[in-house]
Input
Amino acid sequence: MLEIETTPGSDAHDRTAGFDLVSFTAGSRPRVGVLVEGLVHDLADASGNDADLSMMDVLADWSAAQDRIRTVVARARSRRLAGVPLAQCKLLAPLPLPGTLFCAGANYSDHVAEMARVANIEPDPDPRALGLGSWHFIKSSRSVIGPDDAIEIPNGSHKLDWEIELGAVIGHKTRNVTAGEALACVAGYTIAIDLSARDFSRRQGLPAHSPFRFDWVSHKSFDTACPLGPWLTPAAQIADPQNLAVSLAVNGEIKQNSNTRLMIFSVAEQIADLSRKLTLWPGDVILTGTPAGVGSATGQFLKSGDHIAARIEGIGEIRNTVK
Output
């Protein structure tokens, strides 16, 4: 059963007419802000609605919230609403504590080919030819950090790796949707860095054939393992999520440089696949896979003091430093 509602989108192609949603600190509390022309406007203060106090609350009321947000944007553009310069705000992850983080594995053709070369093996068969759908694992929502937050290397790890990913944030209760219906379930997009402790992916002392050998928690869900941000760009402003340039640099050197068109399973197909297995809820985030250029392909890994900058066309850039 399809459980989504849609509302008409604004002009998706003109960034001067666009806006983004941020989570930021005001005093001791996180707030939701509407970023318009470089100024952040407190959404709850402007709308007078307590449903706009947190991003999870906004997403839980997404159909109605869009009308309130559009009103705030119009007031901001007409200079009838005072805002704070973005540079003066401390941004948090757009969803400081999201719902479930679903992470797509092996979902870029260039990444699959790259890892096969590293392992000196033939690439895995095309999953479509085998009748398979997209494949996901879950990352702890407690691992999320925001822009400029420090990344902590897990104790004892020497192989901390980077993976830039397009994050699709669910805005409607979603179950059993088709790929054609799926993008209507997305409230917006953000940038994620799926950090991986490669040397913690397998438990020591167990044979290679053991079904109990893999350790996904240590590998993927350690503290600070998921930088997210810098904001939530409404889905209506992303004309085609399958045609976005993605890049990640470490200390100014480009490591990953690709395009979402190289996904094996599209964002829409991933949402449809997941929705057949379980219900997706507002505030769930789907990390849609990473392209070639990860550290494990060359044996280069993150170290203390490294600066990471991850950029996705139409969204922006998130920066973090390894502690």
